[in-house]
Amino acid sequence: MQTSPSEKFFKSGKSTNELVLRFGQSEYEDIKVLISNADPNSRFPQLNPFTLQSFIKDKINRHTSIQNMKFTRQGKIILTTQDPVCAAQLLNLERVVNIPVSTNVIWENITSRFLLYDIPTTVSLPELAAELTKNNEIEIFEIKRFVKQNNTREISPTLNSIERFLDSKRERT
Q1: Which is more confidently placed, 8 or 91?
Q2: Residue 154: which domain range?
Q3: I need a labelling partner for 51 at 20 to 30 A (CA). Which of 21, 26, 75, 130 fits?
Q4: Residues 150, 155, 159, 162: is their CA dihedral positive or negative?
Q5: pTM for this structure?
Q6: Does 128 lie in the same domain as 93?
Q7: In what order do the strands lie in the sheet with 111-120?
């Protein structure tokens, strides 16, 4: 059974900013925003931390909410905050000190994952997401289907990432 790449991966239609802003409705530890050079072949240059700090103060209204800033070995910057609005502002950055950048959220400790076995390959991933959302009152963030090459079986496991904050909201009511 051959499956196309579109049948192996499903991602929520919600934007990253929308998901981050919804964190304000729940309990979570930290939101980590990853800033990297827009050119994937280039590293982010080691900047003077004070230069970077003054740039962020100018561009981000809630810069006082940033708890930690560090450079990684891969030439990226990780900023940690507990304020979803601050995180959304960081995600909107397009340039940092005249360097084009791309931003993303590190989803660990924010989402939960679980593996479902024996899901028929005839069921589309958007269908599966809709059914899980409806029956379990959770929001599906992404689904990956694992299919071995040259596999003729009609079932395969799927890895589901859910937004933990909606799940914890249900437990409180």
Answers
A1: 91
A2: 9-13+111-167
A3: 21
A4: positive
A5: 0.69
A6: no
A7: 9-11, 140-145, 155-163, 111-120
